Amino acid sequence: MIKIAYSDRYLLDLPKDHKFPIQKYALIKDQLLYEGTIEEANLYDTGLCTEEQVLAVHTQEYWHKIKSLTLDVHEVRRIGLPLNQRLVDRSLSSSCGTLKAAVHALEDGISLNIAGGTHHAFTYKGEGFCVLNDLAIAACHLLQNQLASKILVVDLDVHQGNGTAEIFQNNSQVFTFSMHGADNYPLKKEVSDLDIPLKAYTTDSTYLQILRETLPKLIEEQKPDFIFYQSGVDVLDTDKLGKLALTRQGCRTRDQTVLELCAKKQIPVAVAMGGGYSERMADIVEAHCNTFRVAFDIFG
């Protein structure tokens, strides 16, 4: 059975006009249950990451500021979310969801987190709605417990995975691949092991051609025994922050391309949701739900 991480701790009390669509997480879960793609038995509560797991990635100074709620006004503004205990718990829960998804994927081939993909969190700072880097925390857990020896991060969010790139810049056991909009946040990009910056308004055909030419070769060259997939849907043409032009079907085909490769190569994969900022909430939820539908079609 495919296991899916979800927690009510994912939800924050944000103003209605806030850019971060916090309500999408519950809506994704509810839609998948309503249509029968998943059952309650697929879902489990994430729990919280331990301090030890956080400190395997983030600096002691940064973590102390988070847990003691003492980030300064500039650090809070850079993250873009109100700093309170609810945010701390959400960050620990979301990170634990991806960590547990990784462990479940070792058994079941795939596991998904209805959250996560917080790839703008660095070792020493957070930004872009990201406090802790769930992908890095999960990857370090696998490596430290000898559950994987070579990890590939496939980051297809529209924004570069700058925090993940910084965290693993000197770690040969983790290969970071980010395919993102060139003219988009963050303005100052970090250096991933492989970056593919895309021109504004790149369409389905170009995007999918590049992905199909790149990812199989990358897997063949790096020979990962585990993959983390950051499946942000801010690549959609409807996205307010994205600047790319994928259709919803193109985004679904992107997910299918990645997950079919994982299944074919028998490489366990943990999936985190990443971003999505379309004007209509229905566009965000439907695109994220497609990721789960594809996963169940291939692995279910």
From TrEMBL:
Family recorded in the similarity comment: Belongs to the histone deacetylase family.
Pfam families assigned: Hist_deacetyl (PF00850)
Record domain Histone deacetylase: where: 18-290
Signal sequence coordinates: none
CDD domains: HDAC_classIV
Annotated source species: Rhodocytophaga aerolata
Keywords from the named record: Hydrolase
Statement: the UniProt record of this protein carries the keyword Hydrolase: yes
Keyword Hydrolase: yes
Protein's UniProt name: Histone deacetylase
Origin: domain of life: Bacteria
Family annotation (InterPro entries): HDAC_classIV, HDACs, His_deacetylse_dom, His_deacetylse_dom_sf, Ureohydrolase_dom_sf
